[in-house]
Structures are given as structure tokens and as C-alpha cells.
């Protein structure tokens, strides 16, 4: 049997590298681990840390195709972040000009959650833990 131990990283391709870098670091508060420019690919790669455990790789490529639809396109549906206080997180995002959907209740767990989008429309979720 394959023995997967944990998720190593999540890769996101953005259309405007500086705008997405600012969103993920300044608004979401992720920590930069490393940033490199790969000239042969005309691409930046930014390694971001989520709470000291997980890593998001933010890539820029020339002219990436658009996401076909939101959120039910085939492939990754959304990326969810756990937060201890959903109301405080929503207040922070709205204060930064990020629009969130109305808070919903997970019918199976009773936990509250909401969705918002990154600068490229990638669906992101906040899930109260």
C-alpha cells in the first residue's frame, strides 16, 4: 500500500504575480519561505508557509489559461483554511476589500464556513475549527 504521510505543498498559478503575492502575504498573512525567478521558464516561484506546517507554491507563467468556471470546474474545487474565529477572519478580509460570501453551516459537522476568492478567482474557504 502507498504510504502518504501528509500534503507537502499546494501549487497555484497566478495571472498577476505581484498582485497575488501581495494578496497571499499581506492579506492572508502567509510567510515567505523562498522566492526565485526561473529565467528559462519566465516564471517566478514563491514558497509560502501556512502556520508553520503547510506550503503553498505560487507560480507565474506567461499567459496562463483562465479557470473554466467557479467552483465546479474539474480539478481542484477549492482550497480551505482552518480559522479559530470565523467572524474575526471575515472582518479582517472585508477590511482589506475582500468580499466574502454569507456564512453557512456545514450540515454534517455543524461548523461555520464561508468562501471568498483570490485575485484570479480561485475559490478559497475559511472553515471555523
Automatic annotation (TrEMBL):
Protein name: VOC domain-containing protein
Stored InterPro entries: Fosfomycin_Res_Enzymes, Glyas_Bleomycin-R_OHBP_Dase, Glyas_Fos-R_dOase_dom, VOC_core, YwkD-like_dom
Keyword Metal-binding included in the entry's annotation: yes
Organism of this sequence: Spirosoma montaniterrae
PANTHER family for the chain: FOSFOMYCIN RESISTANCE PROTEIN FOSX, LYASE, PUTATIVE-RELATED-RELATED
Record-linked SUPFAM superfamilies: Glyoxalase/Bleomycin resistance protein/Dihydroxybiphenyl dioxygenase
A Pfam entry, by short name: Glyoxalase
Ribonucleoprotein in keyword set: no
GO MF annotations, alphabetized: metal ion binding
This protein's UniProt keywords: Metal-binding
Amino acid at each position: 500500500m502507498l504510504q502518504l504521510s501528509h500534503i507537502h505543498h499546494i501549487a497555484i498559478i497566478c495571472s498577476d504575480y505581484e498582485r497575488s503575492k501581495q494578496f497571499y502575504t499581506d492579506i492572508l498573512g502567509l510567510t515567505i519561505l523562498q522566492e526565485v525567478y526561473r529565467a528559462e521558464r519566465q516564471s517566478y516561484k514563491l514558497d509560502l508557509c501556512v502556520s508553520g506546517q503547510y506550503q503553498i507554491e505560487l507560480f507565474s507563467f506567461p499567459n496562463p489559461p483562465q479557470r473554466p468556471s467557479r467552483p465546479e470546474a474539474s480539478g481542484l474545487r477549492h482550497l480551505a483554511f482552518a480559522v479559530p474565529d470565523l467572524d474575526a477572519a471575515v472582518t479582517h478580509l472585508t477590511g482589506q476589500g475582500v468580499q466574502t460570501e454569507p456564512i453557512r453551516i456545514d450540515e454534517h459537522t455543524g461548523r461555520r464556513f464561508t468562501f471568498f476568492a483570490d485575485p484570479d478567482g480561485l475559490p478559497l474557504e475559511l472553515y471555523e475549527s
